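Data deposition worksheet. Section B asks for the primary sequence of the deposited chain exactly as it was used as input, without tags or linkers unless they were present during the calculation. Section C holds the resulting structure in token form. Section D is free text for depositor observations; keep each observation to a single sentence. Incomplete worksheets are returned to the depositor.
Section A, Depositor: J.P.
Section B:
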Amino acid sequence: MLGKKRKSQFEAVRSGDYVIRELTKKDWKQFKNLYLHALKDDPASFSESYSDKKGVGDNEWMEMLERAHDDARSIIAGVEHEPTNTLVGLLLVLGNTASKLSHVAKIAGFYLAPSHQSPDLEKAFLQAVLKHVQQFSDVNKMQVSVVTTDRDSLTLFNAFGFVRYGFDEKYLKVGRNYYDGILMSKTL
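Section C:
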């Protein structure tokens, strides 16, 4: 079940050679390729695994983008390297459709390709998405889970006012390895 229909549009933001924008159905091929690459390159950045997503059909990738675009509490944003017109970053925010939790949105994945990572771009990306989420009329709380080994992400979310509210032992299992998670939230 989708949430309410979105009323506000994501305002694209420039950061150097990059454009931060909402992804749409027309971006499905680059979205699919980068998402699958991210699942292989940094499996702890998303709760899904490469094996979960590699067999997903093209129509499902298009529908995922369309659903997020139409939902008033979700967004799939990307960072596009403008000189090459290449998608190099993803940030997924999923709203909750349960009525008692509809005020909470969760960052379900955050990835920048290693060759494009920089603290300034990471900050600009997160800031642009948070600014947009603050326009969602009924969302007033953001949550994110970060594996304990990802110190850079923990530092980034702390800098944006996310606070730790819990610890999740064996939060993710990647292959035979377990990763503990830090649960963080921010009131908007």
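Section D:
The chain has a mean pLDDT of 93.
Strands lie at 13-15, 18-22, 75-81, 86-95, 104-112, 141-147, 163-174, 177-187.
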